[in-house]
Structure prediction request, 956 residues.
Amino acid sequence: MQLRTDCRLFFLLLLCCTGFSLPAAAQIIKGIVAGKDGQLPGATINVPALKRSASTDLNGAFTLPVHTSGKTTITISYVGYETRTIDIDVSEGINNAGIIQLSPAQSDLGQVVIKGTMAPSQAKAYSIKKNALAMMDVLAADAIGKLPDRNAAEAVQRMQGVAVARYHGEADAATVRGTPFAWTSTMFNGSRLPSSNVLGNRSSVLDAVPSEIIQYVQVAKALTPDWEGDAIGGSVNFITRTAPVKRQLNASIAGGYNTFSKNGTYNASLVYGDRFFNNKLGVILAGAIWDRQWGTDSYDVSYNTGLVNPVQQKSINSIMFKRYMGKRQTYGGNLGLEYAFNPSHKLFFRGLMDKFNDIRPVYESYIDYTNSRYQYNYRYSHYQTKLNGAELGGEHQLTGRLKLDWSVSDYMSGYFLETPPTNGNKGLPIATFRQKITGGFNNLSGDGKRYWGFDSPDGIGGDPLHFDAGIKNSGEVMDDSKLTLQQLVIAQLDTKEEDKTAQLNLKVNAGPKVNLKFGGKYRHKYRESTFGSNIVYLPGAALGVPNSPALLALNKLNRADFPMGHGFFKEMGGNYNQYVVDPLSKQQLFDLYDTATLRRNGFMNLTAAGNATNFYTGTEDVIAGYAMGEIDLTEKLKMVAGVRNEYTSLELQGSKATTAGTPATTSITPVTVKSDYNALLPMVHFKYAINKQANIRAAFTRTFVRANFNDMTPGESVDNTKTPIVVTKGNPDLKPTFANNFDLMGEYYFSNIGLLSGGVFYKQIQDVIFSDKVFYNERGNNYALTQARNLDDAKLYGFEAGINKRFNFLKGFWSGFGVEFNYTWINSEVKVPRMVGTDKIMDKTSLPNQSKSLFNAILFYERSGIMVRLAGNYRGRSVETINQQLGPDFYIWTDKNFTLDASATIGITKNLKAFVELNNLTNEPLRTYMGDRRRVTMTEWYGLRGQAGIRWDIIK
Prediction:
């Protein structure tokens, strides 16, 4: 019933909008505004006599209805450029003003305001922001290139209210205003990207996208109805490069060094753009490669949270010293074509091919207190992520009052593993060796458990970052002759998602003060995923099978040298080289999975029968439509109001395992999950221009997020390589999460290309989805079950403020300094029910991934062809995993993190620049903990990296 009501309301509004009567005749002026470096988005075009105005789009193009004929004077203005006045003889229909060139403005001292600085990119970004209908921040391509940010996620981390997730030292995902990552929509050219995120959520992994192929980034915090509505946090829209108004060719090349891996890196890019056939055909081609050696030391602690005794739940199960040392490669390219038949009709094509290779051998040395043994794991992984796709579209000025644009696209994202090349099973090969500790430990508490000192019931323990294993017999160290092969696993990770999309938009000039816009979009999504699937081989000797071949000792197998890099866990203090073990060679690891080798050494395939439930496929069809109006209520006050409706039909095909009988047998049965729901999303914005330099904006918007696929899948995954055994199960009954969003923002634009902005926001959120974890025992085995569930309502509120100010009011050398600073404070609250005995209590916590404080601080110097930037990025602590069963003392948190980067550029000639980039100057670790900051679950160090190179504007 509610679905029918929502749809009726939506279509009633559409009928109202299309019911406007339009005069038959109209006159419009079309053109492109450009500077010497290309098109100028956000330029203002005015007809003073008629009090009519328009602004240029991202390609510098404008459409200005004038409703008059004869000689007309228009003015074109742009921050940092001289205002230009031209006369046009307007006739009925479409009048082409061509390319209107603007010249850089000069200061009172005769200096060119935007010459040789970051000012041109900031002028573009601020002009787009100032004229946007949605509340947004904007970043331009040449601004990205001035900081050491090499992928799309790292590019947006400098923007106000944006936080990033770091994966082994590199940003790979972004979120707006500290909300969970899946609550931020990541789009390319206005359409949401498919996601092959291995965790099954909808957040897009951006480490496959080189920053060099991006022309603009828009971060929308309050949406208008023509944006996709599944974005509670906000939307990050990456605009790929488009054809310039004149020929351009530039290149860059750089080499660098990683202090952790003690290896080199290199980076190169090429951008070419041109126009042909009397400027009708525009071409842009951009490509980039980033190849780097990298390394990480990760100190991981697991706790006995599955035990019954509340004190012992904080005892230590195992300590792991984990080292990654490998290679990463990011390749990307995009092709853009556009053909303008005339000023009224244009076709365009965009193609994208990105690839990310993450080749990482992993070396893991454990001290297992629960089982009194050492454990050593070696794995060789080659993770691959790809993002490919194409889009075809057109823009058509059908009449003087009616404009139509359309597009069809097909984008695919994939994440997969292809090793080992043996036995027909692809995935991540993990060889596990174990060695019994016979002499015991000397630092156990009276209950026989190992604790940190602050958790121990009798004070016996230690300090996490000054670790001592406490082996009674000091000579009982990890020994490759005693480490025997006791398990082989192939972890299967494979996700593919493809989106086929068609959309149509109509814009109607209904009068001098009213523009109407409405349109629709259809998206068909196909997804297939394998997650948590483990093929397990165990040797008969470890299982007690009579007459089995002896266990293989590590020292009897082919080995490779351990990669020491800058040293082993140097940042912790102390010497941990006793946990350094020379690994198997890559080929030896692969050969262990050969069928004949497995049989010869007594290995049996003991993969759980329920493993098949980890694979699922599914489709999701979305039909969306919107109607909105842009109304000039007064000369200074504009209102944008409308509604968007998105109808979603989801179907997932998987299977579930059922175990019954004596002896127990497991049967697999197919299961289908269906979920259909509607989202009616009203939105209204007000924009008040106090003067030419200041705006106040207010908005109410309703948005939503769909449940993650892995959270709804009918199957369940079992990871028996962990203790306790980890079970992940889907919940087909999940509801989508909705939010009512209220925003109030102000912005003031300095005359010397700067910005002061700030505002407040509040979100009412319904049916929050969280990951619940429950521990239980079944047939003598301990299990940890993770399943997504809906919580009650939540709220999020906060404020943000930022300033970008150049100190050119100072004299001489000091006039080159400036500062960029933005800060966001966020508070959220959600109640989590928990049973204590027979009593139900409500734990209060913040939303997952939400940091209370975010800030960026940049000190820069720009003068006489020199640009230097020192950039700090801070993200406060955030809860990552909510443990509903045990409560807040067992929540997993990511600790606060501050990174410091630097860059410098110097002009050698007019078109040639040399640059230096440095990342992670303070060697900031990534740290997670359970409940108490002292109770470490993971601390990871990456070292510093840097590169130096040249940028050459060959044709400009």
